[in-house]
Specification:
Layout (H helix, E strand, L loop, with lengths): L7 E4 L8 H8 L6 E3 L3 E2 L8 H8 L7 E6 L3 H11 L6 E6 L4 H4 L11 H15 L4 E6 L8 H10 L4 E5 L13 H10 L4 E4 L5 H11 L3 E4 L1 H5 L3 H10 L8 H17 L6 H15 L5 H7 L5 H12 L24
Parallel strand pairs: 1-2, 1-9, 2-4, 3-4, 4-5, 5-6, 6-7, 7-8, 8-9
Helix pairs in contact: 1-11, 3-5, 5-6, 11-12, 11-14
């Protein structure tokens, strides 16, 4: 599943963002080496969500895709894992990192980090359920404090998981801090499986610096890939010493146009204004680092005409696209530790 001769590149799972049309779009620009689905919500009455399952059954990337689950009931997680194994997946991932309050208050996602005993149970049960299929885990370094990772790392080392992805922040830190790369580095040294570093990779330089500081087996990139889908081929070029693509503003405009059409193409009851609102979920990341007026104006568009008129005003030129987002935004914080 991982490249044998260079660091691996993963697209991070982002709920309501990294859906089938987004996978199709980002794959067109080189894409990641491995993909992870949005999380399947697992509880006593849950069923596999068809729209997430389509990312697996219609996988447009031609690359491995891992099915991610979120929940805290061992029996239900095992039941869902067995159902997912019937589909063409490269592995099953347990989400131990989602920082959304609506999730962690239910003791799922990052909320499980407060309950090491339950993590022990889940890892054992899911490892057994996966059998020969790779079982992976995505975690944060703690709930309240990074000091909690000492205990968590001990638990992870006890179980034969196949891959550990670490978002180097606590749940409480959400996305508003530097990452604790020292803990990622320690895990990379001590875990018997590959460790993937996640968090604060916003361009080629930050990705290379994160790898250098941790010696991780690869990177998982989320928000930085929404903002610039060429980040994956740019990093591959750095690994191989080849020429990296230079991204212009007009290339970003073309990307937005493709994303608009791809996301519209899967909607059965297309409503223009509603779709413009969906596109703003992507644009709030894309506009970071551009002139302040871009975000202000795009948030106020309501029609397709207004939306693209605003995009063209700021992007319809051959000028280089800004390499870095603003570190003052709530969406991208703390990455200067890698500059």
């Amino acid at each position: 599943m991982l490249p044998p001769d260079r660091p691996a590149l993963f697209l991070a799972p982002m709920q309501d963002v990294t859906d089938l049309p987004f996978l199709r779009t980002i794959a067109a620009y080189g894409g990641a080496d491995v993909y992870v689905t949005e999380y399947f919500r697992v509880h006593i009455h849950s069923r596999i969500e068809p729209y997430i399952l389509r990312s697996i059954t219609e996988n447009p990337t031609e690359r491995p895709i891992i099915a991610q689950m979120i929940g805290q009931d061992a029996d239900e997680l095992v039941r869902t894992a067995l159902e997912l194994k019937k589909h063409p997946i490269a592995g099953i991932d347990l989400n131990l990192g989602c920082p959304a309050p609506v999730v962690y208050r239910k003791n799922a996602g990052g909320g499980l980090l407060r309950n090491p005993a339950q993590i022990e149970l889940l890892l054992g049960r899911l490892r057994e359920a996966c059998g020969a299929l790779p079982f992976t885990v995505k975690t944060r370094v703690g709930f309240e404090s990074e000091d909690e990772f000492e205990t968590l790392l001990g638990i992870f080392k006890k179980h034969p998981i196949d891959l550990l992805t670490i978002h180097g922040r606590t749940v409480r830190e959400r996305y508003q801090s530097p990452v604790h790369d020292d803990w990622v580095c320690r895990a990379a040294k001590e875990m018997p499986c590959p460790v993937i570093a996640n968090g604060n990779v916003v361009n080629r330089q930050t990705g290379l610096a994160y790898l250098d500081s941790t010696q991780a087996a690869g990177l998982m990139i989320g928000r930085g890939a929404i903002r610039n889908p060429w980040i994956f081929p740019q990093l591959r070029a750095a690994f191989t010493g080849s020429q990296a693509p230079l991204v212009s503003r007009r290339m970003i405009l073309d990307y937005i146009e493709r994303l608009f059409e791809e996301t519209a193409g899967v909607v059965t009851d297309f409503v223009e204004n509603k779709h413009v609102q969906k596109m703003k979920k992507y644009l709030v990341y894309i506009v970071q680092g551009y002139e302040e007026g871009f975000e202000h104006e795009i948030r106020r568009t309501k029609t397709k005409k207004q939306f693209f008129a605003t995009c063209e005003h700021y992007l319809n030129s051959d000028e280089p696209a800004p390499d870095l987002p603003s570190e003052n935004s709530k969406l991208f914080c703390g990455f200067s530790q890698f500059l």
